[in-house]
Specification:
- By secondary structure, the protein is mainly alpha-helical.
- The protein has a domain of 31 residues.
- It contains two helices and two strands; from the N terminus they run ααββ.
- A hairpin with a 5-residue loop joins strand 1 and strand 2.
- The protein is elongated.
- It starts with a helix and ends in an 11-residue tail after the last strand.
Amino acid sequence: MEDLEDKLVAEMKKRGHLPNVSTFAFTATPKPKTLELFGTRREDGRYEAFSLYTMLQDN
């Protein structure tokens, strides 16, 4: 059975390279300004990452 990720990959392959699309990745520990721009504001007013990427990879 095809799952959602398989469907997304198939759709991306159908479209091929898109010259007007950019991909950005943030690694390491983000600076406070980066968290403010791309993070989620907590109740205490501080910001936290909306997603975490750990070095541990599930295979």
